[in-house]
Amino acid sequence: MVVFGIDPGYAIVGWGAISYKSNTYKAIGYGSVETQAHSDFNRRLEYIYDELYSILQRCRPDALAIERLYFQTNQKTAIKVAQARGVTLLAAQKLKIPIFEYTPLQVKTAVTGYGKAKKPQVMEMTRRLLNLDEVPKPDDTADALAIAICHIQAAGSELRRAMFRKGL
Partner of 147 at 20 to 30 A CA spacing, among 9, 64, 65, 77? Predict the structure, then answer.
């Protein structure tokens, strides 16, 4: 199974592709799509779409896992992140890649076993699970890998299989 994780944003979109076979995780690629501050927002969205579409087309994952949006105090930022997230989902949809969403709590629990884990703990466990020499930078990239790990954990669970059978 190959899972593509996305940490959505409009300045930096973290991405990571993980293969999972025989109870072993392997990072097969990761990085970030970064846009220029103060440039036209619509051009930023177009750039994010084009870059992610190209990466997804090369990778051809079995699933895309993305962080579910939660509203913060800054509505303007949340709306822009939602728009960037939308073009990311469109890229996956155009390539017929199944999309799954996870909350930050679900990601922390899947990666560390503790839903209130701090960011450095999640990043270190992600590094360990993928047997990497160091935590990927920027942080958004490590977050995307953690989101992919979360999907792999959930995809193998009895709850997830039951949800698929019932069409939930």
Answer: 77
Query: CATH number of the domain that 49 lies in?
Result: 3.30.420.10
- Active-site entry in 7, 34, 51, 143: 7
Contact 115, 79 (CB under 8 A): no
139 is catalytic: no
Q: Which of 34, 51, 140, 143 is catalytic?
A: 140
**Tally of domains within the chain:** 1
Domain residues for the domain of 95 are 2-166
Which residue, 104, 32, 19, 101, is CA-closest to 59? 19
Calpha distance 30→53 (Å, rounded): 14
- Supply the pTM of this predicted model: 0.90
What are residue 32's phi and psi, to 5 degrees? -145, 155
Distance from C-alpha of 54 to C-alpha of 13, rounded to nearest angstrom = 14
Backbone angles phi, psi at 118, to 5 degrees: -85, 160
CA 90 to chain centre: 14
Question: Which residues neighbour 57 within 8 Å (Cβ) at sequence distance 6 or greater?
Answer: 95
Catalytic site includes residue 140: yes
Please indicate whether residue 124 is annotated as part of the active site: no
pLDDT number for residue 70:
75
